[in-house]
Design a protein that fits this description.
29% helix; two-stranded antiparallel ribbon; alpha+beta
Length: 217
């Protein structure tokens, strides 16, 4: 009768090497350095859902986005100034499954937190701005995006105006000087500073009016 042999030293070393390689493959996704990437991916998924909700709304309203139509037609046009960005997302409540997706996982502002219901929604439950110049017919229009955007000009009455004269950029507040942006074609782009500026140039309008989720009046 033959006796089963144990592992040789070489076999043990090979096994250890294989396990070490496997661990190194997992490390980027589980280490602290991998967490920002995971949060950004979750942000992309959330923006995709928000964009789909807007498109579903438009399909039921003659191809118009909610902020293009007045309240008498079910829209939110009357709220396109001031600290009313949340109104546009509240208007999509029937198409959005959960108000918690309105807070970006990378948003560390202690004054912002996810809402548990749409009835109590406010800008403090919001991480994203609304691109008021986007239309369904222009696939490159800026529809929604992370709020960590700036061009060095002040926000006036809740509106940040983007023009090619004042190049836009990302702050380090949410995604370390990069960001995610949902376009009118239904896509969500992960953009660097350069990518953002190119997207603004191709948006189809000379000035992009972004209603920011400002806190306060």
């Amino acid at each position: 009768m033959q006796r089963n042999k144990g592992l040789t030293l070489v076999e043990v070393l090979v096994l250890i090497a294989i396990l070490a390689v496997f661990f190194m493959m997992l490390l980027p996704a589980t280490s602290t350095g991998g967490k920002p990437r995971v949060k950004r991916i979750r942000c992309v998924v959330d923006l995709k859902q928000i964009g789909e909700a807007e498109f579903n709304w438009a399909n039921d309203h003659g191809g118009k986005f909610s902020f293009e139509l007045s309240q008498t037609n079910g829209g939110t046009m009357e709220f396109t100034t001031g600290a009313n960005a949340w109104r546009h997302f509240q208007g999509l409540s029937n198409a959005l499954a959960d108000p918690k997706i309105l807070i970006c996982p990378a948003d560390s502002d202690r004054h912002r937190k996810a809402s548990t219901n749409f009835a109590m929604l406010s800008n403090s439950n919001l991480s994203y701005f609304v691109g008021l110049d986007s239309i369904e017919a222009d696939p490159q229009g800026i529809l929604f995006s992370d709020r960590n955007i700036t061009n060095g000009t002040p926000i006036k009455n809740g509106i940040l105006e983007l023009t090619t004269n004042n190049p836009a950029g990302w702050t380090g507040e949410m995604h370390n000087k990069v960001g995610n942006l949902a376009l009118s074609d239904g896509s969500v782009q992960q953009l660097s500073m350069t990518g953002l500026r190119i997207t603004v140039e191709n948006a189809g309008v000379s000035t992009n009016h972004l209603q920011m989720p400002i806190l306060g009046p």
